[in-house]
């Protein structure tokens, strides 16, 4: 069980659910659900091992994508990223995956599917959001940061390609010690989407990320 001494301090804006074991095809995790007291959104933390407060913890913050996470959609890279992250955390023996209810980069499912419709008409993922009157990315990482603080985690090795996610967490007092790229091989359905994320949203993808990985291994020689 996690020490709940800090319960009075964290989480301020979240209700904490029961802690249970979750045996999965990736390994066994502890599962804790959380609910945002303001908007009612429910998030999940899957925890492996005992994160150490003084050490950096391997963390994946994963935004919900019903199409990719549940139905294996090839339009994005979400499903494979989710599964790769769980495999990596299991392999490391310690880490946390936070599944945030931020469908469609925070605009919700109805709006994301409208954005998909626009993408079928030739808009890219950024312009489709803008055309609908949204920002390119409406996510906020306050809940994620609160969950991490609740778990006594303040330093993370973050599995992401997304610079906004790193900034979003830092803004709420989480130190991103390292950023670990989570690269999924593009397919013909998501190549343009991934290219747009690289060119317009600053994602460290494809060649840049492969180069980073290579450099990391070269440093170890
Ligand atoms: N609005 C919109 N949302 C999308 C589209 N494609 C995927 N998404 C959403 O984008 C989000 C992707 O989340 P993540 O995989 O956590 O994050 P990311 O920003 O791609 O960054 P990584 O950490 O590198 O994976 C999910 O909420 C998806 O539902 C799209 O074309 N339009
Ligand atoms: Zn997706």
From TrEMBL:
GO cellular component annotations of the record: cytosol
EC annotation? 3.5.4.25
Tell me which positions the record assigns to the signal sequence: none
Q: What's a Gene Ontology MF term here?
A: GTP binding
Annotated GTP cyclohydrolase II domain ranges read 19-180
Active site residues per record: 137, 139
One example of a Gene Ontology biological process annotation: riboflavin biosynthetic process
> Which Pfam families did the record assign?
GTP_cyclohydro2
Q: Which InterPro entries match?
A: GTP_cyclohydro_II, RibA, RibA-like_sf
Q: Does the keyword Nucleotide-binding apply?
A: yes
Per UniProt, GTP binds at 60-64, 81, 103-105, 125, 160, 165
Required co-factor(s) are: Zn(2+)
Keyword field: GTP-binding, Hydrolase, Metal-binding, Nucleotide-binding, Riboflavin biosynthesis, Zinc
For this protein, the record's NCBIfam families field holds: PRK00393.1 (NF001591), ribA (TIGR00505)
What PANTHER family is this protein classified in? Answer: 3,4-DIHYDROXY-2-BUTANONE 4-PHOSPHATE SYNTHASE (PTHR21327:SF18), GTP CYCLOHYDROLASE II-RELATED (PTHR21327)
Q: What does this protein do?
A: Catalyzes the conversion of GTP to 2,5-diamino-6-ribosylamino-4(3H)-pyrimidinone 5'-phosphate (DARP), formate and pyrophosphate.
Say which family it is in: Belongs to the GTP cyclohydrolase II family. In the N-terminal section; belongs to the DHBP synthase family.
The name this protein carries in UniProt is GTP cyclohydrolase-2
Q: Which organism is it from?
A: Sunxiuqinia elliptica
Its taxonomic path starts at:
Bacteria, Pseudomonadati, Bacteroidota, Bacteroidia, Marinilabiliales
């Amino acid at each position: 069980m996690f020490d709940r001494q800090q319960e009075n301090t964290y989480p301020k804006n979240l209700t904490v659910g029961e802690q249970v074991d979750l045996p999965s095809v990736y390994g066994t995790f502890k599962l804790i659900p959380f609910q945002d007291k303001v908007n009612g959104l429910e998030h999940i933390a899957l925890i492996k091992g005992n994160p150490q407060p003084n050490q950096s913890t391997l963390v994946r913050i994963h935004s919900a994508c019903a199409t990719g996470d549940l139905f294996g959609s090839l339009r994005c890279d979400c499903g494979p990223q989710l599964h790769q992250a769980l495999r990596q955390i299991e392999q490391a023996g310690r880490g946390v995956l936070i599944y945030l209810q931020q469908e469609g980069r925070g605009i919700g499912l109805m709006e994301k599917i409208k954005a998909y419709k626009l993408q079928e008409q030739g808009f890219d993922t950024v312009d489709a959001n803008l055309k609908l009157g949204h920002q390119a990315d409406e996510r906020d990482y306050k809940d994620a940061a609160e969950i991490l603080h609740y778990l006594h985690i303040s330093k993370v090795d973050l599995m992401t390609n997304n610079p906004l996610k790193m900034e979003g967490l830092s803004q709420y007092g989480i130190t991103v010690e390292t950023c670990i790229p989570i690269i999924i091989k593009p397919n013909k359905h998501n190549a343009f989407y991934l290219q747009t994320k690289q060119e317009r949203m600053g994602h460290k993808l494809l060649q840049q990320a492969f180069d980073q990985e290579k450099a990391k291994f070269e440093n170890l020689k």
